[in-house]
Amino acid sequence: MTAADSSAAAAPTSAVPTLRPYQREAVARVVAHFRASSEPAVVVLPTGSGKSLVIAELARLARGRVLVLAHVRELVEQNHAKYEAYGLTADIFSAGLKRKEAGRQVVFGSVQSVVKSPERFADGNFTLLVIDECHRVSLDQKSSYRRVVEQLRRQNPSLKILGLTATPYRLGQGFIYHRHHRGMVRGDDDCFFRDCVFEQPLRLMVKQGYLARPERRDMAVEHYDFAGLATTESGAFSEAALNRVVAGSRATPGIVADIIARAEGRLGVMIFAATVAHAEEVLGYLPQGEAALITGATEARERTALIAAFKARRIKYLVNVAVLTTGFDAPHVDVIAILRPTESASLYQQIIGRGLRLSPGKDDCLILDYAGNPWDTYAPEVGEPRPASDSEPVQVICPECEHANLFWGKYDGELLLEHYGRRCHGLVEDAAGRAVQCSFRFRFKTCDECGAENDIAASRCHGCGKLLVDADDKLRDALKLKDARVLRVSGMQLEATVNGRGLARLKVTYHDEDGATLDEWFALETAAQRRAFQAAFLRRHLRAPGIGWKPATPEEVVAGRERLRHPDFVIGRRVGRYFKVREKLFDYAGRYRRAADAG
């Protein structure tokens, strides 16, 4: 895509909307990216930041045909209206809007309608595809968005694809793009979108006064207990499971009463219920004549009327069940009450985004969470699912490229006690000058053939290509040997002591559940011995690997024992009268029970 001449296809100056500085920068970054590459790109803008205007400007500048897709008719309509604000005309292809036009240079369509009408787009020769709410693009080749992409690429292999979203992550996948313009890797290499070319952080939007300040409150007095709720295979909560928690809950009347009290003097309240039955119960406790309910089953005409009444402030409370999380714009909303667990950071951000738009008389938006959701308002996702409820985002500097990684982890005061990062997210240049991911791995498993360090979940070595020996196979083979000892490790003891010749040594003893032990001994007297200790022991045992902790004596190691973790299994082989540790298995996820799994 290239920028058109200022004289071409430009509307009169009075009709052209004014872009904010970050919107202009986003447009410029997209244009620069597509001049150099045809790889799919992403722009990340918070809810309420004006994605529609960025889309309109890009469509105006584009040479060639443009298709703009969204998954709900409200977004199709909004994006189309912003484009026509330039004084230009575009088509709409959406069954929900009762229009199926696809002849003009720019077409705004719903993905459901476009995928069902391939013949209308077979010879379209589109040069730019824009996908709003692009976090909905699946890795599944048979999904609606991917089928449309494949169809358009058959007509134009150089098709430029741009996605825009406020929430660039998918449940179960993590980040939807591979590289970030600030020089780091976020998602896996198989992500459909390759580059995030521009991101405007929510915190900066609030600081600059473009969005209302979110004031989150975790409601500890009255709340629902969703802690024991399990998700389905898709990662979502089932309606039946949700109903078991909220149906007839004694907490509901108190929660609704609390919402009403906290909303006194507020302008508009959106309540996100767990299920339809739950929403109907909540509605019954709200002031009569001041509240309405919208669900997926609400008839279209009634839904339109209820939304219009809410926007006109004829009703104050709007209860819904997962139907107003995108494409809904009511700037006066200044209270968001969350009465359901949100399975993903994306869904949580979409919910609170309904209340962050600016409006006269509105200073902030009160976020009332009655469901104990773990997501942070400004930094909801690190890239992988949160491994433990008490973990938080932590910064870890790569010892090789010095990139500041963001991982889940834990602090003990100022001490970074643990992190769950596997590989550095930094981008470095290879010999050909290409931006590639830094090769440093914080956690790894070593190939027995070539010694290369691989991801802990890898099945084949990235170095030599050989199949990596399965941990279960190692344990099974060792258990068959008479001269081997296998410990299901339940604890690790560190001791600063001396050996038989009176030399200072670190003794590491591994214990299993039945009292059996295996020992390792390390010398730290010379620089070479300390380097060997770092490679043979610390690199695998540190709970926060790569942080640069370099103890120089056995006493320092013992004093820092809280920094260390023990392996799940240790395999020893007999050497003379003693057993020598030959293999240690960390991050084990096989069929044998770990000591930590004992009930």
TrEMBL record:
Stored Gene3D superfamilies: P-loop containing nucleotide triphosphate hydrolases
Molecular function GO labels: helicase activity
UniProt cross-references to PANTHER family, sorted A to Z: ATP-DEPENDENT HELICASE IRC3-RELATED, TYPE I RESTRICTION ENZYME ECOKI R PROTEIN
The organism of origin for this protein: Halomonas piscis
Residue span(s) of domain Helicase C-terminal: 255-400
Pfam families named in the record: Helicase_C, ResIII
Matches recorded under PROSITE patterns: HELICASE_ATP_BIND_1, HELICASE_CTER
UniProt name for this protein: DEAD/DEAH box helicase
